Amino acid sequence: MIGGDDVYKVIVAMVPLYVALMLGYGSVKWWKVFTAEQCDAINRLVCYFTLPLFTVEFTAHVDPFQMNYPFIAADVISKVIIVVVLAFWAKCTSKGSYCWSITSFSLCTLTNSLVVGVPLIKAMYGPTAVDLVVQSSVFQAIIWLTILLFILEFRRSSAGLITPSSSSSNSGNRVVVDDQSKDLEESSNEISVEESSRPKFWTLMRAVWLKLAMNPNAYACIIGLVWAFVANRWHLEMPSIVEGSILIMSRAGTGTAMFSMGIFMALQEKLIACGTSLTVIGMVLKFIAGPAAMAIGCIAVGLHGDAALPQSITSFIFAKEYGLHADVLSTAVIFGMLVSLPVLIAYYAILEYVN
Protein backbone atom coordinates (compact mmCIF):
# COMPACT_ATOMS: atom_id res chain seq x y z
CA MET A 1 0.00 0.00 0.00
CA ILE A 2 1.17 3.54 -0.73
CA GLY A 3 2.37 5.39 2.36
CA GLY A 4 3.20 8.99 3.18
CA ASP A 5 6.85 8.53 2.21
CA ASP A 6 5.86 7.26 -1.23
CA VAL A 7 3.57 10.26 -1.81
CA TYR A 8 6.40 12.56 -0.73
CA LYS A 9 8.76 10.96 -3.28
CA VAL A 10 6.27 11.69 -6.05
CA ILE A 11 5.89 15.30 -4.90
CA VAL A 12 9.68 15.68 -4.83
CA ALA A 13 9.79 14.49 -8.45
CA MET A 14 6.99 16.82 -9.59
CA VAL A 15 7.71 20.12 -7.79
CA PRO A 16 10.93 20.91 -9.75
CA LEU A 17 8.92 20.63 -12.96
CA TYR A 18 6.53 23.31 -11.77
CA VAL A 19 9.44 25.50 -10.70
CA ALA A 20 10.71 25.42 -14.31
CA LEU A 21 7.16 26.05 -15.53
CA MET A 22 6.71 29.12 -13.30
CA LEU A 23 10.11 30.51 -14.27
CA GLY A 24 9.11 30.31 -17.92
CA TYR A 25 5.72 31.87 -17.18
CA GLY A 26 7.18 34.68 -15.10
CA SER A 27 9.94 35.47 -17.60
CA VAL A 28 7.29 36.58 -20.09
CA LYS A 29 4.22 37.53 -18.02
CA TRP A 30 5.87 39.42 -15.17
CA TRP A 31 9.47 40.23 -16.04
CA LYS A 32 9.14 40.71 -19.83
CA VAL A 33 12.48 39.00 -20.48
CA PHE A 34 11.59 37.45 -23.86
CA THR A 35 9.72 38.65 -26.93
CA ALA A 36 7.32 36.41 -28.87
CA GLU A 37 10.00 35.69 -31.49
CA GLN A 38 12.49 34.74 -28.79
CA CYS A 39 9.91 32.42 -27.25
CA ASP A 40 9.60 30.58 -30.56
CA ALA A 41 13.38 30.24 -30.66
CA ILE A 42 13.40 28.71 -27.17
CA ASN A 43 10.80 26.13 -28.21
CA ARG A 44 12.89 25.23 -31.26
CA LEU A 45 15.95 24.82 -29.03
CA VAL A 46 14.00 22.32 -26.93
CA CYS A 47 12.52 20.55 -29.96
CA TYR A 48 15.73 20.13 -31.95
CA PHE A 49 18.47 19.84 -29.31
CA THR A 50 17.59 19.05 -25.69
CA LEU A 51 14.73 16.58 -26.28
CA PRO A 52 16.54 14.50 -28.96
CA LEU A 53 19.59 14.14 -26.72
CA PHE A 54 17.33 13.30 -23.76
CA THR A 55 15.77 10.55 -25.91
CA VAL A 56 19.19 9.19 -26.90
CA GLU A 57 20.34 9.16 -23.28
CA PHE A 58 17.53 7.11 -21.75
CA THR A 59 17.09 4.83 -24.79
CA ALA A 60 20.79 3.93 -24.85
CA HIS A 61 20.64 2.50 -21.32
CA VAL A 62 17.85 -0.06 -21.76
CA ASP A 63 18.43 -3.76 -22.26
CA PRO A 64 16.54 -4.78 -25.44
CA PHE A 65 17.13 -8.48 -24.70
CA GLN A 66 15.23 -8.30 -21.40
CA MET A 67 12.08 -6.54 -22.57
CA ASN A 68 8.65 -7.79 -21.55
CA TYR A 69 7.17 -8.43 -24.96
CA PRO A 70 3.64 -9.38 -23.77
CA PHE A 71 3.47 -5.96 -22.07
CA ILE A 72 4.68 -4.26 -25.26
CA ALA A 73 2.09 -6.24 -27.25
CA ALA A 74 -0.64 -5.04 -24.88
CA ASP A 75 0.58 -1.47 -25.37
CA VAL A 76 0.48 -1.87 -29.16
CA ILE A 77 -3.03 -3.35 -29.05
CA SER A 78 -4.30 -0.46 -26.90
CA LYS A 79 -2.92 2.15 -29.31
CA VAL A 80 -4.28 0.33 -32.35
CA ILE A 81 -7.71 0.38 -30.72
CA ILE A 82 -7.42 4.14 -30.20
CA VAL A 83 -6.27 4.67 -33.81
CA VAL A 84 -9.17 2.61 -35.23
CA VAL A 85 -11.76 4.44 -33.11
CA LEU A 86 -10.37 7.87 -34.00
CA ALA A 87 -10.10 7.02 -37.70
CA PHE A 88 -13.72 5.83 -37.72
CA TRP A 89 -14.78 9.02 -35.91
CA ALA A 90 -12.91 11.27 -38.35
CA LYS A 91 -14.15 9.44 -41.46
CA CYS A 92 -17.70 8.43 -40.64
CA THR A 93 -19.17 11.14 -38.39
CA SER A 94 -20.27 14.68 -39.18
CA LYS A 95 -18.14 16.16 -36.40
CA GLY A 96 -15.09 14.05 -37.21
CA SER A 97 -11.76 15.80 -37.73
CA TYR A 98 -8.38 14.37 -38.69
CA CYS A 99 -6.58 17.23 -36.95
CA TRP A 100 -8.45 16.58 -33.71
CA SER A 101 -7.84 12.85 -34.16
CA ILE A 102 -4.10 13.54 -34.04
CA THR A 103 -4.46 15.56 -30.84
CA SER A 104 -6.82 12.97 -29.32
CA PHE A 105 -4.30 10.22 -30.05
CA SER A 106 -1.64 12.19 -28.15
CA LEU A 107 -4.02 12.72 -25.23
CA CYS A 108 -5.08 9.08 -25.03
CA THR A 109 -1.77 7.32 -25.52
CA LEU A 110 1.37 9.44 -24.95
CA THR A 111 2.32 9.53 -21.28
CA ASN A 112 4.91 11.21 -19.05
CA SER A 113 6.25 7.83 -17.95
CA LEU A 114 9.77 8.69 -16.81
CA VAL A 115 9.20 11.79 -14.68
CA VAL A 116 6.05 10.82 -12.79
CA GLY A 117 5.56 7.19 -13.77
CA VAL A 118 8.77 5.81 -12.27
CA PRO A 119 8.28 7.03 -8.66
CA LEU A 120 4.57 6.19 -8.72
CA ILE A 121 4.93 2.69 -10.12
CA LYS A 122 7.87 1.96 -7.83
CA ALA A 123 5.76 2.89 -4.82
CA MET A 124 2.81 0.81 -6.03
CA TYR A 125 4.43 -2.32 -7.43
CA GLY A 126 8.15 -2.24 -6.65
CA PRO A 127 11.37 -2.11 -8.74
CA THR A 128 10.28 -4.82 -11.18
CA ALA A 129 7.42 -2.68 -12.45
CA VAL A 130 9.79 0.24 -13.02
CA ASP A 131 11.42 -1.75 -15.83
CA LEU A 132 8.03 -1.92 -17.57
CA VAL A 133 7.64 1.86 -17.34
CA VAL A 134 11.08 2.43 -18.86
CA GLN A 135 10.37 -0.11 -21.62
CA SER A 136 7.07 1.63 -22.34
CA SER A 137 8.86 4.98 -22.56
CA VAL A 138 11.46 3.60 -24.97
CA PHE A 139 8.83 2.00 -27.19
CA GLN A 140 6.81 5.22 -27.09
CA ALA A 141 9.84 7.20 -28.24
CA ILE A 142 10.82 4.72 -30.94
CA ILE A 143 7.42 4.01 -32.48
CA TRP A 144 4.62 6.31 -31.44
CA LEU A 145 6.40 9.65 -31.16
CA THR A 146 8.09 8.92 -34.49
CA ILE A 147 4.72 8.20 -36.09
CA LEU A 148 3.30 11.37 -34.54
CA LEU A 149 6.24 13.36 -35.90
CA PHE A 150 5.70 11.88 -39.38
CA ILE A 151 2.00 12.77 -39.36
CA LEU A 152 2.66 16.33 -38.17
CA GLU A 153 5.32 16.81 -40.85
CA PHE A 154 2.98 15.31 -43.46
CA ARG A 155 0.27 17.77 -42.42
CA ARG A 156 2.65 20.75 -42.56
CA SER A 157 4.07 19.74 -45.96
CA SER A 158 0.56 19.22 -47.37
CA ALA A 159 -0.36 22.77 -46.40
CA GLY A 160 2.92 24.15 -47.73
CA LEU A 161 2.53 22.53 -51.16
CA ILE A 162 -0.96 23.95 -51.66
CA THR A 163 -0.05 27.39 -52.96
CA PRO A 164 -2.31 30.43 -52.70
CA SER A 165 -2.10 31.06 -56.47
CA SER A 166 -3.43 27.63 -57.42
CA SER A 167 -6.31 27.82 -54.98
CA SER A 168 -7.26 31.39 -55.82
CA SER A 169 -8.05 30.46 -59.44
CA ASN A 170 -10.72 28.08 -58.17
CA SER A 171 -12.22 30.01 -55.27
CA GLY A 172 -11.70 33.64 -56.29
CA ASN A 173 -10.03 34.60 -52.97
CA ARG A 174 -6.47 35.53 -52.18
CA VAL A 175 -6.43 33.09 -49.18
CA VAL A 176 -3.11 32.41 -47.48
CA VAL A 177 -2.77 29.15 -45.52
CA ASP A 178 -0.80 29.67 -42.31
CA ASP A 179 -0.17 26.16 -41.01
CA GLN A 180 1.44 27.46 -37.83
CA SER A 181 -1.72 29.18 -36.58
CA LYS A 182 -4.65 27.39 -38.24
CA ASP A 183 -5.69 23.79 -38.57
CA LEU A 184 -5.22 22.35 -42.04
CA GLU A 185 -8.84 21.28 -41.99
CA GLU A 186 -10.09 24.78 -41.21
CA SER A 187 -7.94 26.20 -44.00
CA SER A 188 -9.24 23.66 -46.49
CA ASN A 189 -12.79 24.77 -45.74
CA GLU A 190 -11.93 28.26 -47.00
CA ILE A 191 -10.37 27.22 -50.30
CA SER A 192 -11.46 24.91 -53.09
CA VAL A 193 -8.65 22.79 -54.49
CA GLU A 194 -9.19 20.68 -57.64
CA GLU A 195 -7.23 17.50 -58.55
CA SER A 196 -4.91 19.44 -60.97
CA SER A 197 -3.73 21.67 -58.11
CA ARG A 198 -3.33 19.13 -55.29
CA PRO A 199 0.27 18.07 -54.58
CA LYS A 200 1.21 14.70 -56.06
CA PHE A 201 1.61 11.95 -53.50
CA TRP A 202 5.28 11.23 -54.18
CA THR A 203 6.15 14.93 -54.26
CA LEU A 204 4.53 15.25 -50.87
CA MET A 205 6.25 12.16 -49.47
CA ARG A 206 9.64 13.38 -50.71
CA ALA A 207 9.11 16.70 -48.96
CA VAL A 208 8.09 14.90 -45.74
CA TRP A 209 11.10 12.57 -45.71
CA LEU A 210 13.50 15.43 -46.40
CA LYS A 211 12.05 17.34 -43.46
CA LEU A 212 12.26 14.28 -41.21
CA ALA A 213 15.87 13.69 -42.26
CA MET A 214 16.71 17.14 -40.93
CA ASN A 215 14.79 16.62 -37.67
CA PRO A 216 16.92 14.89 -34.99
CA ASN A 217 13.80 13.67 -33.17
CA ALA A 218 13.18 11.29 -36.09
CA TYR A 219 16.30 9.22 -35.45
CA ALA A 220 17.39 10.04 -31.89
CA CYS A 221 15.61 6.99 -30.47
CA ILE A 222 17.00 4.77 -33.26
CA ILE A 223 20.56 5.83 -32.42
CA GLY A 224 19.96 5.12 -28.74
CA LEU A 225 18.40 1.72 -29.41
CA VAL A 226 21.17 0.66 -31.80
CA TRP A 227 23.73 1.45 -29.13
CA ALA A 228 21.65 -0.42 -26.54
CA PHE A 229 21.70 -3.57 -28.72
CA VAL A 230 25.45 -3.30 -29.34
CA ALA A 231 26.31 -2.50 -25.71
CA ASN A 232 24.25 -5.34 -24.25
CA ARG A 233 25.28 -7.86 -26.89
CA TRP A 234 29.03 -7.33 -26.46
CA HIS A 235 29.01 -5.83 -22.95
CA LEU A 236 30.40 -2.48 -23.97
CA GLU A 237 30.32 0.82 -22.12
CA MET A 238 29.75 4.13 -23.82
CA PRO A 239 32.96 6.20 -23.96
CA SER A 240 32.85 8.80 -21.20
CA ILE A 241 33.54 11.64 -23.62
CA VAL A 242 30.50 10.67 -25.71
CA GLU A 243 28.26 10.12 -22.70
CA GLY A 244 29.32 13.44 -21.21
CA SER A 245 28.56 15.22 -24.47
CA ILE A 246 25.06 13.74 -24.50
CA LEU A 247 24.36 14.34 -20.81
CA ILE A 248 25.32 18.01 -20.84
CA MET A 249 22.26 18.75 -22.99
CA SER A 250 19.96 15.84 -22.16
CA ARG A 251 19.84 16.74 -18.48
CA ALA A 252 18.20 19.99 -19.48
CA GLY A 253 15.57 18.26 -21.61
CA THR A 254 12.66 18.03 -19.18
CA GLY A 255 13.41 21.35 -17.49
CA THR A 256 13.63 23.34 -20.71
CA ALA A 257 10.46 21.65 -22.01
CA MET A 258 8.56 22.78 -18.90
CA PHE A 259 10.14 26.24 -19.20
CA SER A 260 8.93 26.44 -22.81
CA MET A 261 5.45 25.43 -21.70
CA GLY A 262 5.43 28.21 -19.10
CA ILE A 263 6.38 30.68 -21.82
CA PHE A 264 3.54 29.40 -23.99
CA MET A 265 1.06 29.81 -21.11
CA ALA A 266 2.23 33.39 -20.55
CA LEU A 267 1.58 34.29 -24.18
CA GLN A 268 -2.06 33.15 -23.95
CA GLU A 269 -4.90 35.43 -22.91
CA LYS A 270 -6.19 32.87 -20.39
CA LEU A 271 -4.32 30.59 -17.99
CA ILE A 272 -6.43 27.64 -19.17
CA ALA A 273 -5.67 28.30 -22.81
CA CYS A 274 -8.11 25.86 -24.39
CA GLY A 275 -11.16 26.57 -22.22
CA THR A 276 -13.06 24.48 -19.69
CA SER A 277 -14.88 22.13 -22.07
CA LEU A 278 -11.76 21.06 -23.96
CA THR A 279 -9.92 20.65 -20.65
CA VAL A 280 -12.60 18.23 -19.43
CA ILE A 281 -12.53 16.31 -22.72
CA GLY A 282 -8.75 16.10 -22.54
CA MET A 283 -8.84 14.72 -19.00
CA VAL A 284 -11.48 12.15 -19.97
CA LEU A 285 -9.36 10.98 -22.89
CA LYS A 286 -6.24 10.83 -20.73
CA PHE A 287 -7.56 9.19 -17.56
CA ILE A 288 -10.50 7.12 -18.84
CA ALA A 289 -10.24 6.35 -22.56
CA GLY A 290 -6.48 5.65 -22.47
CA PRO A 291 -6.56 3.27 -19.46
CA ALA A 292 -9.66 1.53 -20.85
CA ALA A 293 -7.85 0.78 -24.12
CA MET A 294 -4.79 -0.41 -22.18
CA ALA A 295 -6.97 -2.66 -20.04
CA ILE A 296 -8.38 -4.26 -23.19
CA GLY A 297 -4.85 -4.77 -24.52
CA CYS A 298 -3.73 -6.36 -21.25
CA ILE A 299 -6.71 -8.70 -21.19
CA ALA A 300 -5.99 -9.71 -24.79
CA VAL A 301 -2.48 -10.91 -23.89
CA GLY A 302 -3.35 -12.23 -20.43
CA LEU A 303 -1.90 -9.45 -18.26
CA HIS A 304 -3.49 -7.66 -15.32
CA GLY A 305 -4.61 -3.98 -15.41
CA ASP A 306 -2.73 -0.73 -15.81
CA ALA A 307 -3.00 2.87 -14.65
CA ALA A 308 -3.05 6.26 -16.33
CA LEU A 309 -0.08 8.60 -16.33
CA PRO A 310 -0.03 12.35 -17.06
CA GLN A 311 0.47 13.77 -20.53
CA SER A 312 3.83 13.52 -22.31
CA ILE A 313 5.73 16.84 -22.32
CA THR A 314 7.20 15.91 -25.71
CA SER A 315 3.74 15.85 -27.27
CA PHE A 316 3.28 19.50 -26.27
CA ILE A 317 6.65 20.50 -27.76
CA PHE A 318 5.70 18.84 -31.06
CA ALA A 319 2.24 20.45 -30.99
CA LYS A 320 3.79 23.88 -30.44
CA GLU A 321 6.40 23.42 -33.16
CA TYR A 322 3.85 22.19 -35.73
CA GLY A 323 1.00 24.52 -34.74
CA LEU A 324 -1.60 21.90 -33.84
CA HIS A 325 -3.66 22.45 -30.67
CA ALA A 326 -0.71 23.34 -28.44
CA ASP A 327 -3.16 25.00 -26.02
CA VAL A 328 -4.96 21.69 -25.46
CA LEU A 329 -1.73 19.74 -24.97
CA SER A 330 -0.24 22.31 -22.57
CA THR A 331 -3.39 22.22 -20.45
CA ALA A 332 -3.32 18.41 -20.49
CA VAL A 333 0.28 18.37 -19.25
CA ILE A 334 -0.40 20.83 -16.43
CA PHE A 335 -3.66 19.34 -15.19
CA GLY A 336 -2.44 15.83 -15.86
CA MET A 337 0.44 16.23 -13.42
CA LEU A 338 -1.81 17.95 -10.86
CA VAL A 339 -4.41 15.19 -10.79
CA SER A 340 -2.21 12.21 -11.63
CA LEU A 341 -1.39 11.37 -8.01
CA PRO A 342 -4.99 11.11 -6.68
CA VAL A 343 -6.19 9.43 -9.89
CA LEU A 344 -3.42 6.83 -9.83
CA ILE A 345 -3.96 6.11 -6.15
CA ALA A 346 -7.66 5.59 -6.92
CA TYR A 347 -6.80 3.22 -9.79
CA TYR A 348 -4.38 1.38 -7.52
CA ALA A 349 -7.03 0.94 -4.81
CA ILE A 350 -9.59 -0.30 -7.34
CA LEU A 351 -7.18 -2.82 -8.86
CA GLU A 352 -6.14 -4.02 -5.40
CA TYR A 353 -9.82 -4.54 -4.51
CA VAL A 354 -10.60 -6.35 -7.77
CA ASN A 355 -7.58 -8.64 -7.45
UniProtKB/TrEMBL annotation:
Subcellular location: Endomembrane system; Membrane
Keywords (A to Z) from UniProt: Auxin signaling pathway, Membrane, Transmembrane, Transmembrane helix, Transport
Topological type in the membrane: Multi-pass membrane protein
InterPro entries per UniProt: Auxin_eff_plant (IPR014024), Auxin_Efflux_Carrier (IPR051107), Mem_transp_PIN-like (IPR004776)
Annotated transmembrane regions: 7-25, 69-90, 102-121, 133-152, 208-230, 246-267, 279-303, 328-350
Chief site of localization: membrane
Keyword Transport annotated: yes
Top-level taxon of origin: Eukaryota
Purpose: May act as a component of the auxin efflux carrier.
Family indicated by similarity: Belongs to the auxin efflux carrier (TC 2.A.69.1) family.
Name the record gives this protein: Auxin efflux carrier component
Upper taxonomic lineage: Eukaryota, Viridiplantae, Streptophyta, Embryophyta, Tracheophyta
